[in-house]
């Protein structure tokens, strides 16, 4: 398979700028996700310059805010959130209580990430909420 970047999910800003989660195939059965600037008119994809160093097999969900010109990555295998501006400049890394630099199973499974307007002075004027999926339990009856 030829290596080629392609968008997976994106925030449309205009015809020449989207903030997208992109996929880069690696070999036959793996991929590397990242956040990029995507020009829909030309098809040009430019990955953001900041990536948290030394993480193996990165998987994340992301959200972007046009109003705040920020995006956030919540890593599904690490207790870490990374917040950057739309040029890929790091604003901050947020480490959770279970942060280790090695992969671990997350205690919760995130299904959605949203920006919510909450002001924390003197920090970034935005709060990020993560939602876990609702799991319905079914009852099994034996025959």
How would you describe the overall organization of this protein?
Strand 1 (6-14) and strand 2 (17-26) form a beta hairpin. By secondary structure, this protein is mainly β. A four-stranded antiparallel sheet has the order 1-2-3-4, with no helix packed on it. The protein has a four-stranded antiparallel sheet with strand order 5-6-7-8, with no helix packed on it. It is 0% helix and 45% strand. It is built from no helices and ten strands. The N and C termini lie far apart (49 Å).
Q: Proportion of β residues? A: over 45%
**Major β-sheet annotation:** 4 strands, antiparallel
The protein's oligomeric status is single chain
What is the overall pLDDT average? Answer: 76
SSE order = EEEEEEEEEE
- Percent helix, as a range, is under 10%
| Strand element count | 10
What coarse outline follows from CA principal-axis ratios?
globular
Cα distance spanning the termini: 49 Å
Low-confidence spans: 116-127, 131-143
Question: What is the overall number of helices?
Answer: 0
| Rg over C-alpha atoms, rounded to the nearest angstrom | 17 Å
The largest beta-sheet arranges its strands as: 1-2-3-4
The computed structural class is mainly beta
């Amino acid at each position: 398979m030829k290596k080629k970047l392609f968008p997976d999910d994106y925030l449309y800003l205009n015809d020449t700028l989207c903030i997208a989660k992109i996929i880069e195939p690696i070999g036959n059965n793996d991929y590397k996700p990242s956040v990029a600037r995507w020009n829909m008119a030309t098809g040009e994809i430019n990955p953001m310059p900041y990536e948290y160093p030394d993480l193996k097999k990165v998987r994340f969900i992301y959200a972007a805010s046009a109003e705040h010109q920020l995006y956030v990555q919540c890593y599904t295998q690490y207790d870490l959130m990374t917040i950057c501006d739309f040029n890929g400049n790091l604003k901050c890394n947020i480490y959770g209580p279970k942060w280790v630099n090695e992969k671990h199973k997350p205690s919760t499974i995130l299904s959605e990430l949203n920006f919510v307007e909450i002001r924390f002075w003197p920090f970034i004027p935005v709060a990020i909420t993560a939602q876990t999926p609702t799991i319905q339990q079914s009852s099994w009856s034996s025959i």
